[in-house]
């Protein structure tokens, strides 16, 4: 019993290492070591420290460019010319504003009213063209109205009458019978509708009279 309990105790405390813990076995150090895992950690720390030093190191040779002189950065001559140009523009604007104010305040000495009527230089020519077009249209209208028709209408009427007679001869029943039948049906339906409406009106009157009599009795 004691041996079995000891065996179960050791079996329950066994740990399963993850797969990542065995990755250090594939690491190949430069020198022979007793523990590859520790050597891998140390090499990684050394490499990270080296990269930090490389990133934070300063160059021995100064490869920066020369600083631009202050007189080139400011460009004092350009600023001076710009100020002079702006001052000239402001002076001209003030002069123009004063002149406009004088013109607005004064009534003016020159009569600037324009009484010229618009007149076209080719009005006569266009009028003649319109008259010519009107005469041409009138002539075309006269030719159209005086033209005799080329269609032989009497012959068409004769052909139509001949065709109607043939249809009457060929037809089994007299023509127009279907139309008469349809018209009689329409009249019949209209009469029946009027009768139905009259019956409904009489029924309404009778019901109204009975209601009035019942009301008087009450």
From TrEMBL:
Residues 17-28 have a biased composition (Polar residues). It comes from the Eukaryota. Residues 1-28, 184-218 are annotated as: Disordered. InterPro entries: CFAP97D1/2 (IPR038792), Hmw/CFAP97 (IPR029488). Residues 189-218 have a biased composition (Basic and acidic residues). Residues 1-14 have a biased composition (Basic residues). Belongs to the CFAP97 family. This is Uncharacterized protein CFAP97D1. The gene is si:ch211-284k5.2.
């Amino acid at each position: 019993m004691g041996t079995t309990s000891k065996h179960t105790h050791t079996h329950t405390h066994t740990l399963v290492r993850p797969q990542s813990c065995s990755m250090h076995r594939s690491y190949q150090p430069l020198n022979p070591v007793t523990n590859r895992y520790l050597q891998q950690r140390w090499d990684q720390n050394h490499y990270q420290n080296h990269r930090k030093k490389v990133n934070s190191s300063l160059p021995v040779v100064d490869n920066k460019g020369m600083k631009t002189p202050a007189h080139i950065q400011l460009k004092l001559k350009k600023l001076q010319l710009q100020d002079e140009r702006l001052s000239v523009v402001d002076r001209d604007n003030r002069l123009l504003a004063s002149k406009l104010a004088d013109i607005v305040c004064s009534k003016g000495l020159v009569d600037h009213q324009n009484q010229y009527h618009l007149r076209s230089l080719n009005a006569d020519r266009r009028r003649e063209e319109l008259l010519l077009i009107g005469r041409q249209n009138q002539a075309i209208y006269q030719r159209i109205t005086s033209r005799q028709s080329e269609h032989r209408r009497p012959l068409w009427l004769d052909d139509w009458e001949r065709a109607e007679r043939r249809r009457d001869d060929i037809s089994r029943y007299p023509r127009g019978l279907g139309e008469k039948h349809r018209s009689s049906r329409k009249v019949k339906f209209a009469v029946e509708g009027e009768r139905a409406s009259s019956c409904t009106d009489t029924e309404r009157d009778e019901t109204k009279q009975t209601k009035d009599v019942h009301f008087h009795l009450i």
